Each structure stands twice: as C-alpha cells, then as structure tokens.
Amino acid sequence: MAKVVDVKKSVMEADEVLAEKVRSFCRDRRIVLVNLIGSPGSGKTTLLEATKKYSDIKFAVIEGDVETARDAERINALGVPVVQVNTHGGCHLEANLVNGAIGEMDLEGISLLFVENVGNLVCPVEFDLGEDYKVAVNSVPEGADKPMKYPHLFHKAGAVLLTKTDLLPYLSFDIDVFEKDLEKLNPDVPFLKINSMNGDGIKEWVELLEGWVREKSSR
Amino acid sequence: MAKVVDVKKSVMEADEVLAEKVRSFCRDRRIVLVNLIGSPGSGKTTLLEATKKYSDIKFAVIEGDVETARDAERINALGVPVVQVNTHGGCHLEANLVNGAIGEMDLEGISLLFVENVGNLVCPVEFDLGEDYKVAVNSVPEGADKPMKYPHLFHKAGAVLLTKTDLLPYLSFDIDVFEKDLEKLNPDVPFLKINSMNGDGIKEWVELLEGWVREKSSR
Known about the structure:
CATH class of chain A: Alpha Beta
Largest interface: A-B, 33 and 33 residues
Strand order of the largest sheet of chain A: 1-4-3-5-2-6-7-8
Oligomer: homodimer
Number of helices of chain A: 8
Mean pLDDT of chain A: 94
Low-confidence stretches of chain A: 7-12
C-alpha cells in the first residue's frame, strides 16, 4: 500500500514560506521538482507509468487527488517511491502538502520528483509548490481549444505535452489551432506529442527531463 | 456575436441570496435550470449542440469559461439564446454571475436553461447557482475511476452522462467499474450513455429533460 497523507493533519504555515522551504530542500539535494498539471483523465499517471517503463530515469512521485489512493497504488506497483496526498474536496495542492509529503519520503539517490496535481486546469496554476517547472498535460480528446480557454496554465508552463495521440485518427482535433494558440501564449515552450501506451514521444520527454536534471546538478 | 458578461462588472451580493433570487425567478417562470458540470473537454458544449440538433426542445444557455467566447459562439450559431460569462481566472460560476447573465437574456417561451459551468470537477460542485439539477458530464477518455476520485459531484448529481461512447472500442474503459462506483455514491441517479456525434442516447437525454420540464410546469 502507498502512504497516504491526510491534509487536515498537515501543519498550516504561510504558503510562500513553505514553497521556499520545498525549493531550498530540492536545491540542496539537486532534485528537480516537476509539477504536472492537467484535466482529470488527461493521462498524468499513465505518463509516469510510461516514463518508468521506457526509461532508466530514477524518480519519485507525490500523488495529489481529492479522494482515493488509486494513482499512488499504480505508481507503487512499479517500485517507484510514492506518497498519496488527499485533499478531501480541495481542488489543488499547496506547498504545505508537498512539504509534508517530502518529509514522508526516502529520496536517497532521487534526482527528479514529480508532483501530480489534482486534475484541474485552473486552480493549481496559482499555487507555488516550490517547483522548478510546471508541465501542462493536455490530451487529444479534450480538444484543441484548451490553450486559449485556460491560458494561465499554458502561459506559465515549462513544457506542454499533448497526450493520447493514438486517438487523433478518431477525433477532429486541429493540431494547427493548438500549436498556433500555444505559440501566442508561450512561444518557446518545449511541445511534445506523446502516446504513453506505445511509448511514442517518451524518448523526447525523457531527454527533456534529463536535461533539466543535468542543468540543476551543475548549478 | 454572443453577448459577453464581464465578472468584474457584476454586483457582488451574498451568494446564497442571489442563488435564491435565481431560484425564485426560475420558479415564477417555470424554467428548469440545469447546471452542467464536467472536465475541460468532456463534451458539454457538443452535448448542447446535439440536444438542439436531435430534438425540438426549446432552451437557452449561459456559457461559463475562464476566457474566450468560443463556446457561446458555437451555441449562438445554432440560433439558441446564449450569454457568455468569463471568469478571468475563476474556476467556477457563482450565483451572482448567473443572476447577471439572466438579466441579459430574453427568456420568453424558454422552459429550460442550461448553465455550462467552467470545466472542473471540483470547485463548481460547492456553489449553489439556484439550479434544479446538477448534471455530471464525464467522457470515456477520462477513465472509469472518476466517480470515486471526484465523489462530491457524482453524489450530488441529478443525472450522470457518460459521453464520447464512440471511443469505447479504442480505450480500456471498464464500464462495470464506473457503474458500480456510481451506484455506491448515488444509487438511483439516471445514468445515460451518449454519443453526441451520431445522436446515440440523445433521445433518452431529451426525455429526461422533458420530464423535468413537465414536472416543474405542473407545480
């Protein structure tokens, strides 16, 4: 069973102080902290499964969900260190929850820590968790209009992933619209097309992550 | 062009007072108010398009989005009365926005008013808009684990729609898990499977809506 942290047991401190505490922890240990933000069912957990399956990269995960430990159980089954945080109605993670979860983890030898945020394109964007990068995870079935409808996320993202590309033949997804709108919001952001089921695009994703790890370890 | 209401121009009053005002308005005019809640890209607007295409039911729409009037333009193109509400970062609609939008609409001859909430499975659930029913819109690509991961919505829903059923052959969606979890949360809720592209399930959806309209008009 994966560990579960109850929100209400976490000590509440000023959010910005705790974000800085998380940032400082990760700076000292040369851990890259990646905040995955996407809609419910956009494929965030499946992306992490594929990252494990198709690469040698060593990482740990903090799973954020309103309820259930289902995602943490999936990650735990891969032998990846994981803690589940349940918000019990809360629509996003805050730095105090990440700080609390880090305290529960053995991060020896880990250079990359994912936070899988609550499925939501709006609220998680506003909360600094002390992360190095926010990564926007948007799936093909959600439609190509998402960057302009949820511009704050796409503007702030350090990378944008378009997942479930295997469904492109069955949907009227206009990838030109998606790319043009994204370019307006965030011209130089790395944009990767990914099919986590067969590994398409995972190599490029892992290279991006490895670059981030190299950059942080050389600071 | 569809009308756009700016949130910041709306008069802020106590939320519960305004929800009651909306409820009273709809009671007096025998208008059924339906609050559509689903993830970004779950097919809420496409459901409304199909409701118009495959039925004679007369309805109006209040479109809620963080940014853009794209959804209202789609509804406007069908000749359906519509007002777009932009929240500019807000993750849900509140009663003051619905009340303001109603003031902008000609609802003569309308017996059904949809509010399409901001794409989000968490925050919209907590805010009473004065609606008769919350309807949960969940699409097949989001996965079968959504009821238990977002139980508050499914527990409170007056109907649950599973959309994009044309994608079932291409995905490992376990409909038994979905139905069993839903039954635990909300045993008697109407559950409809819908493909808005070819109209599958729309007849049952329209019959449900017509029943709600008949019930309200006979009160």
